[in-house]
Amino acid sequence: MSVLVIDQIGKQYEKKRWALQDFSLRLDGGVLGLVGPNGAGKTTLLRILATLLSPTRGTVHWNGQDVLRYPEALRRELGYLPQDFGVYPQLTAREFLTYIGELKGLRGPLLSRRINTVLEQVNLIDDANRRLRTFSGGMVRRIGIAQALLNDPRLFILDEPTVGLDPAERLHFREIISSLSAERLILLSTHIISDIEAMASEVVLLQQGHLFWSGTTSALLADAQECAWSLTLDVADFERLRDDYRMSIAIRRGREVDLRLVSSVRPHPDAIPVDPTLEEAYLFVTNNSHDSLTLAPQA
Ligand SMILES: Nc1ncnc2c1ncn2[C@@H]1O[C@H](COP(=O)(O)OP(=O)(O)OP(=O)(O)O)[C@@H](O)[C@H]1O
Ligand SMILES: [Mg+2]
After folding, report:
1. Measuring from atom 5 of ligand 1, which residue has the nearest CA?
2. What CATH number has the domain bearing residue 21?
3. pTM for this one?
4. What's the 216 CA to ligand 2 centre distance in angstroms?
5. Is 19:210 a contact under the CB 8 Å cutoff?
């Protein structure tokens, strides 16, 4: 299994402002979900790992090789789906993949074979000869995955691959990622916690360029034990509470509101403790930035 070691990476686009700072992580397989608000540094990190951007500080090693000095070894084994992935609308799916494959140095029968394999993997083999301009947004995203898979990468990096997908395409996407995860290292960024729940074994939370929390999804849930509460309030009480707590659900039913919120203390005498969802654990951990410094694994 391949190993990616990121050591104290920092990136400054402009003087005095770090888009990414002191980021260290070791990855040796599975699916890593990178979560963080807009501008947290996700794309910056992923572009550094894809060797498209040089860090200002730090090192990256891929199977023991220094990636910044010798990027070729990683590049050969890399598949990358950028956040702003675009296609040539006038090409058919097969023509587009041929073009990208040739750019990656694949040729002839090997390239034809790989194109059929990746089209099967993303379930577009029956659409191979359709022009990309006739594809839905979800199908374009799948072509994006297909082009990144042409060289059968060991390291697969996807930057916000699920944005704008409808529920059926989202499910489809999750199935593709799960089918790919054996013997590959997959890094994907997302704003959607349920993506993490469905696909990732490990999660990294990034905030303002800092690694804020990392661990397994079950460790994230464990760190947020006894943080989630369920409560039904009348509308006036709800309005009083809403600015003081982070709510995960609020559903109005007539004059009452059914809600769930996160809090380290009981927020209301009627509140009932419930098992947190991953989304609630995320809300809790990111809301308690001071506490989180002591949120080291308790075991
Ligand atoms: N080329 C650039 N020049 C200057 N600043 C940049 C550049 N690219 C990114 N930044 C800044 O670096 C920070 C991190 O940006 P980045 O795109 O990595 O965040 P992100 O987590 O991917 O955000 P999003 O969720 O919106 O995609 C932001 O403050 C951004 O404005
Ligand atoms: Mg981004």
Report:
1. 13
2. 3.40.50.300
3. 0.88
4. 22
5. no
User: Looking at 196, 216, 236, which one is the last position of a domain?
Assistant: 216
Same domain, 177 and 206: yes
- Report the atom number in ligand 1 closest to the C-alpha of 40: 21
> Is residue 296 pLDDT above 70, yes or no?
no
Cα of 94 to ligand 1 centre, how many Å?
A: 33
Ligand 1 pocket by Cβ (under 6 Å): 13-14, 19, 36, 38-44, 83
Task: Indicate if 211 and 235 belong to the same structural domain.
Answer: no
- Inter-residue contact 235 to 68 (CB < 8 Å): no
Task: Report, as an integer, the average pLDDT of 151-170.
Answer: 91
Q: What are phi and psi of 2, to 5 degrees?
A: -80, 155
Looking at the fold, whether 147 and 115 belong to one and the same domain comes out as yes
∠ Cα 243 247 252 (to 5°)? 95
168 with 242, same domain?
no
Kindly report the protein residue whose alpha carbon is nearest to atom 6 of ligand 1: 13
